[in-house]
Amino acid sequence: MAAPALPQCRAGTLYLTIDTGWGREAEAIAAAMQRREIRATLFLANEPDFRGGQTLAPGWADFWRARAAEGHAFGSHTWRHWYLAADPGPGQVRYVSRRRGEGAETLDGPGFCAELQKPIEALRAIAPEAKVLPLWRAPGGRTTPNALKLAAACGLRHQGWSARGFLGDELDSAKYPNKALLAQALSRTRDGEVLLMHWGVRSRREPFGLIFEDLIEGLQARGFCFATLPASGVA
Q1: Rounded Cα gap, residues 166 and 162, in angstroms
Q2: Of 15, 122, 191, 212, which one is least surrounded by beta carbons within 10 A?
Q3: How many CA atoms lie within 13 A of 136 on its CB side?
Q4: Distance separating alpha carbons of residues 35 and 213, to the nearest angstrom
Q5: CA dist., res. 127 & res. 188, Å (int)
Q6: 211 near 180, Cβ under 8 Å?
Q7: pLDDT digits (tens, 9 = 90+) for 122-180
Q8: Rg of the Cα atoms in the chain
């Protein structure tokens, strides 16, 4: 027989996932997770950061090392955080940057595997004990049939987010202020949701990190628990 749910999990279990992003609110978000005693699944990419560097550069080593020590799980979000645009031929994916001057490439199977493995290799170099899941997430959540097949051949399964799990931290804060996003998430979240957010989004004027702890506190008050994703992912 299944074990009864813990009283504090009466509403179910949520899977918080955090994509790398700009990193502006990273320390505040991490501190709030530690206070609220929750663990998330962190999808890593080497993106430009708010300091003028890159999010997997040595200056971030202590941050990622601390998250590994706290028990968060990790997955790949690609190394360069370019977008998968098309399948130009059998066993190929078109990989396109949205940043000026970076261009595009067509990757074959080994090239795509290397792109997915590189952020995990960087993590392993600084935190060998980190819990790494065989999961990846495409930038923007945009995949192609070939990308899914090539990643599966590398032993990785794609993990998106649930329809109600998009927390909106990428949206224009003038149209979607924090107060509205908080109310929406608290009202519509259901058991089993895969929640998506970032460690800060450059274009958002009102940082979502300002309401992050209010969101977690509110969901816990509703009776939700938080867990890292299982190795098989969540459909």
Answers
A1: 7
A2: 191
A3: 30
A4: 9
A5: 36
A6: no
A7: 999 999 999 999 999 999 999 999 999 999 999 999 999 999 999 999 999 999 999 99
A8: 18
Nearest 10 degrees: CA dihedral of 226, 229, 233, 235?
A: 10
Nearest CA to 197 among 46, 85, 41, 28? Answer: 41
118 phi, psi to nearest 5 deg? -60, -45
d(CA 10, CA 228): 18
41-44 vs 73-76, strand pairing mode: parallel
Is the entire prediction scored with pTM above 0.90?
yes
Beta bridge partners of 13: 225
Residue 2: CB atoms within 10 Å: 4
CA 207 vs CA 171, 177, 195, 200: distances in Å: 11, 9, 17, 7
What whole-number distance in Å separates Cα of residue 170 and Cα of residue 204?
7
CA distance 29 to 23: 10
Show the DSSP H helices in 127-206 as ranges.
145-153, 178-188
Q: Are strands 93-96 and 104-107 parallel, antiparallel or unpaired?
A: antiparallel
Instruction: Mark out the alpha helices in 5-144 (DSSP H runs).
Output: 26-36, 61-70, 109-126
